[in-house]
Amino acid sequence: MGFKCGIVGLPNVGKSTLFNCLSSAKAEAANYPFCTIEPNVGMVSVPDLRLDKITELVKPKVTIPTVMQIVDIAGLVKGASRGEGLGNQFLGNIRECDAIIHVLRCFENENIIHVEGGVDPVRDKDIIDTELQFKDLESLEKKLDRTRKMTKGGNKEAAKAVAVVERYIAHIEQGLNARTLDVTEEEAEVVAELGLLTAKRVLYVCNVDEDSLPDGNEFVEKVKAAVANENANLMVISAGFEEQLGDFDDPADTLEFLNSVGLTEPGLNVLIREAYSLLDLYTYFTAGEKEVRAWTIPAGTKAPQAAGVIHSDFERGFIRAEVMKYKDLVQYGSENAVKEVGKLGVEGKEYVVEDGDIMHFRFNV
Fold first, then answer.
1. N or C, which terminus of the chain has less Cβ within 10 Å?
2. Which of 86, 69, 49, 59 minimizes the C-alpha distance to 5?
3. Rounded CA gap, 141 and 363, in Å?
4. pLDDT tens for the chain, residues 1 to 365
């Protein structure tokens, strides 16, 4: 499986440039708002050194990485929650995404206009947060009205739900995002159907100029302070620098260019891994002479359900899973060697798959 991650931000913060670097699907990058109108969608391979190492040891005919879907969503402006600009479309596209990559402009460039007239990433973040919060409040108020009607017959569960919805409303009315509200799983389930926009997990991406790599600048420090109490991650990248990296064909030249700004790998690799981890996703592998492949599962997935990611028949007819740990394959060099030292596990239906497991499923349908 993969998942859908939406790139959001105000116009002209570098969203489309970043998307172009990430994906083979090219968005138009232009110096005016709304150059991205329909959401551009691209499939991005998730970099994983473990997959490279397994390939080196197994020597398959083909290697297939796991992927995630990246969506470049139209730039938002003030009033989006009331339909201003492309507001309704923007908010609808976010609702369809599983997680958000929120790009913030942290560089000065007089040749690239800013829709708000100047560079202030914390203000930009607040603009988008406010619009998302307004939309969430609209959804919650409708939910509250419906749920209150259900309490008239003495429905105790509805009464509990009313209390939960009121807590969410009070929290968001303070200018806070839903994901920062401390709730139980049961309480979160009360509003799950609403797909609250501010409940989605977020990776803040501070887009800096090349001179501010690798650690950022004063704009980045302000963003760090602003998001310190949020349940969110933050990273620094230069979309312009990453765009230049695409011009190199020789890995040695690429590494030299990276080293020149204090990096050891492309920032895009880090971004993809960070985005992948937003939703607590794990990777397991299948490995044979024909194919080595990475597969995506949510953390906590049991063996039959992991098998079902490959094919529903694997889950339906699951018998057992033969499990080899990645570190054991690296240490002993081959599956046969792992077997000989008794490190190949045989697991049943209750086995919870661990990140990095190399698995072979036995099934019968």
1. C
2. 69
3. 49
4. 457 899 988 888 998 889 888 875 444 554 433 344 456 888 888 889 999 999 999 999 999 999 888 888 876 656 655 654 444 666 778 888 999 999 999 999 988 877 778 899 999 999 999 989 998 999 999 999 999 999 987 888 999 999 999 999 999 999 999 999 999 999 999 999 999 999 999 999 999 999 999 999 999 999 999 999 887 899 999 999 999 998 898 999 999 999 999 999 999 999 988 988 888 899 999 999 999 999 999 999 999 999 999 999 999 999 999 999 999 999 999 999 999 999 999 999 999 999 999 999 999 98
